[in-house]
């Protein structure tokens, strides 16, 4: 069976879940074609390594030879831009029609494919996967109706959490066309290791892009409060990642008087990140709804930390409670609630034995519900069902 993927720029290393899902289908004997909104620099993306080497051979820009005109077309008036871009989209229809099913990652790419279906130019069934920004931002703007054509002409809409599933149904998607399909992690590459911190300094870590929705500001404010309320507690906080808020967050750490106990390590190679996780005790990700409505799905970083044996401290945000149950598989605080977050961090610092039990439950949770192998098997079953229906027709 041949599955066509419709994605944004490809490949993007920040979207390893997309590449992982494609690789999962290749492993199960599927052929994969890709139509994308721009092909990124393959050298930066390890394009010579598998599975990317195979995937890139089957990748086409939506607009083919006209792709270099993309920057100029963005300057056109909206209505004219839509007409021209739609005409150019048609140049990739033949590639997609050669597939048995189309999988679109992110709602806007599903909507793009659905328009072609509406005009009777695209034949295969469309399965769209919603991840976060594609639900949160239009929900914030009161504009989930932008997916009206997708709800009608798409075959199935998969959401990475139940929060998004309910949002799409509330916006008019037929219940029978919406289901939850989690993203997962490769547990074979993550060994569970517990490290206690009784009579030792608690090592905290965050791994994320430094943007508003990751909530690192509130981790710093909670630790600033903890430094005042429990000055004898020994801890150090390392922040791995870069982004537009880094300078402001560094300034905040100084203003809170905790700069000497906070290290901004910037972006690191994957192997270096793994080493820091192994040296750490607790993983902090106090995610929030951004001012533009952007939200998390269920962060892969939390899954990886839980699988590795770290105690996770996060927030009651979007789909995170579907992964982290407060005081059972980790710790949660309400969004932007500095006091509760500080209390959760203090509890972690003072109760390593209790946290060990929670960490074990966290690993079991990830194994049961977020194992990429099992999820890839389930996804292969989904696309096979729709592909067989088309082949039979």
TrEMBL record:
Give one Pfam hit by family name: Glyco_transf_4
Annotated GO molecular function terms are: glycosyltransferase activity
For this protein, the record's InterPro entries field holds: Glyco_trans_1 (IPR001296), Glyco_trans_4-like_N (IPR028098)
Domain Glycosyl transferase family stretches = 201-364
Q: Which superkingdom is the protein from?
A: Bacteria
Annotated SUPFAM superfamilies: UDP-Glycosyltransferase/glycogen phosphorylase
Keyword Chloroplast (UniProt): no
Q: Write out the entry's keywords from A to Z.
A: Glycosyltransferase, Plasmid, Transferase
Residue ranges of domain Glycosyltransferase subfamily 4-like N-terminal in the record: 15-187
Q: Which family does it belong to?
A: Belongs to the glycosyltransferase group 1 family. Glycosyltransferase 4 subfamily.
Question: Which named protein is this?
Answer: Glycosyltransferase
State the organism named in the record. Sinorhizobium sojae CCBAU 05684
Task: List the lineage, top down.
Answer: Bacteria, Pseudomonadati, Pseudomonadota, Alphaproteobacteria, Hyphomicrobiales
């Amino acid at each position: 069976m041949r599955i066509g993927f419709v994605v944004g720029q490809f490949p993007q290393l920040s979207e390893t879940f997309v590449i992982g899902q494609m690789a999962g289908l290749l492993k199960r004997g599927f052929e994969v074609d890709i139509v994308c909104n721009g092909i990124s620099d393959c050298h930066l993306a390890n394009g010579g390594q598998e599975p990317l080497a195979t995937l890139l051979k089957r990748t086409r820009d939506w607009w083919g030879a006209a792709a270099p005109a993309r920057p100029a077309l963005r300057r056109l008036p909206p209505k004219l831009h839509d007409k021209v871009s739609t005409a150019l989209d048609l140049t990739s229809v033949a590639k997609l029609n050669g597939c048995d099913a189309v999988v679109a990652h992110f709602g806007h790419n599903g909507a793009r494919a659905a328009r072609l279906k509406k005009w009777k130019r695209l034949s295969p069934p469309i399965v769209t996967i919603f991840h976060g920004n594609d639900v949160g931002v239009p929900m914030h703007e009161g504009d989930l109706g932008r997916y009206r054509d997708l709800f009608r002409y798409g075959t199935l809409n998969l959401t990475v959490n139940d929060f998004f599933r309910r949002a799409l149904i509330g916006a008019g998607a037929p219940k029978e066309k919406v289901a939850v399909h989690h993203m997962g992690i490769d547990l074979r590459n993550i060994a569970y290791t517990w490290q206690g911190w009784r009579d030792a300094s608690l090592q905290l870590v965050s791994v994320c892009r430094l943007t508003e929705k990751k909530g690192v500001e509130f981790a710093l404010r909670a630790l600033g409060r903890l430094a005042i309320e429990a000055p004898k507690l020994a801890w150090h906080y390392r922040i791995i990642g870069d982004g537009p808020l880094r300078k402001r967050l560094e300034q905040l750490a100084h203003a809170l008087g905790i700069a000497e106990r906070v290290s901004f390590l910037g972006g690191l190679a994957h192997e270096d990140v793994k080493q820091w996780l192994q040296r750490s005790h607790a993983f902090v990700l106090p995610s929030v709804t951004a001012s533009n409505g952007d939200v998390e799905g269920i962060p892969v970083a939390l899954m990886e930390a839980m699988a590795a044996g770290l105690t996770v401290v996060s927030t009651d945000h979007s789909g995170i409670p579907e992964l982290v149950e407060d005081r059972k598989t980790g710790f949660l605080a309400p969004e932007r609630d500095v006091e509760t977050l500080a209390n959760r961090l203090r509890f972690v610092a003072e109760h390593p034995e209790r946290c060990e039990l929670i960490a074990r439950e966290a690993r079991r949770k990830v194994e049961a519900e977020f194992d990429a192998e099992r999820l890839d098997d389930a996804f292969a079953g989904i696309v096979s069902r729709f592909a067989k229906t088309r082949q039979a027709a």
